[in-house]
Amino acid sequence: MKVTKFANLLAVGLALTFAVGCKKKPTGVTPLPGERPAVVGPGDQSGMINPTPGTGVGSEGTSATPMGNPADWANATRDDKKFEADTVHFKYDSSVVQSSDKSKIADVADYLKGNANTAVEVDGHCDERGTDEYNRALGERRALAVREELIALGVDGTRVLTVSFGRSRPIDTGHSEAAHAKNRRGEFILLTK
What we know:
Helix content: 25-40%
CATH architecture: 2-Layer Sandwich
Number of strands: 6
Oligomer: single chain
Radius of gyration: 21 Å
């Protein structure tokens, strides 16, 4: 009798373990051609571009992908206002560049093609929903999607650096959909030698 009760409890426990313990994969993830896994490291505490590719950028952000040589731009002048009006926004849980934002990316590409001593850092951001890990990866996909658009418009990929800040740098700390929409973005930082 005791063995039967124990077996029943064991069976129920195993069933609950599988039902509750299985992780659900995120839905609506937009893969990019040639996508690489996120590089999540301790980061460089200076907030400057990390001269060692793949070890992180900034104290909160992570280098999305090593490309070119970030050390070439480590001492560059950073201007986060130049392309402020060209900030790209994304739909919830998406890294697809909306057609309404492609002209903004074209403006940045035109500037870069006309100014050889410049580069751009694309910072990917997310709203507050989701885990830190998921949002860092989503921020990476967003930055890479913008990078791919710039490359398609003729910008040399070694002049486009990407960083993911996930949800760590909101521009609106509210909890409404309007606040979330502002935080789902790709920002451009102009780098000049």
